[in-house]
Amino acid sequence: MNVPRVLLLTDRSQLPAGRDLVGTVAACVDAGLDAVVLRELDLPEDQRQRLARALGAAGVAVLSARTRLDGVAGVHLATAQARPDEGPPLPHGRSCHDDAEIRAAASGGASYLTISPVAASASKPGYGPALGLPGLRRAVTLAGHVPVFALGGVDEQNAADLRNAGAHGVAVMGAVMRADDPAGAFRRISQAVR
């Protein structure tokens, strides 16, 4: 798997009224998006499958959160979650929040890790204390050779600092999903981490 600098995580509940998820992701693809993590875990599997196909048709590599879907480029799993065993092995990422999870994911063959929350997050308020740059640096060291994405509270103001602290890249949700101009927000974040 070619690991991009920016992962976009979906959350259609954060979209402004009148905007659809596929259109938002397609606009970000036009702005340079390479990979999206399809969350939308409240949807039945058949609807998530259709959404994965539609996102893939927009020209982006789709990573499905927590479950394997047909035709996806990979899966994004919780640290303790078993890899799906149906079909050929896919690249997989892991969500990590502490040292033990980072070590387990890095030694367990993860293709990449997300480390969160690195900053206060509007998408998941109260989801643990922010790790900050010192916590991110520690996570990168613990992860060794596995690429680390900073997640939680990522925006265009802090993306460069997160990259400079050692993150391979950033994973972003709310700063793009809630933006008036999602493609512009994605482009600015992407430029900050190059």
Automatic annotation (TrEMBL):
<dbReference type="Pfam" id="PF02581">
    <property type="entry name" value="TMP-TENI"/>
</dbReference>
<protein>
    <submittedName>
        <fullName>Unannotated protein</fullName>
    </submittedName>
</protein>
<dbReference type="InterPro" id="IPR022998">
    <property type="entry name" value="ThiamineP_synth_TenI"/>
</dbReference>
<keyword id="KW-0784">Thiamine biosynthesis</keyword>
<dbReference type="GO" id="GO:0004789">
    <property type="term" value="F:thiamine-phosphate diphosphorylase activity"/>
</dbReference>
<dbReference type="GO" id="GO:0009228">
    <property type="term" value="P:thiamine biosynthetic process"/>
</dbReference>
<dbReference type="GO" id="GO:0005737">
    <property type="term" value="C:cytoplasm"/>
</dbReference>
<dbReference type="InterPro" id="IPR036206">
    <property type="entry name" value="ThiamineP_synth_sf"/>
</dbReference>
<feature type="domain" description="Thiamine phosphate synthase/TenI">
    <location>
        <begin position="8"/>
        <end position="176"/>
    </location>
</feature>
<dbReference type="InterPro" id="IPR013785">
    <property type="entry name" value="Aldolase_TIM"/>
</dbReference>
<comment type="pathway">
    <text>Cofactor biosynthesis; thiamine diphosphate biosynthesis.</text>
</comment>
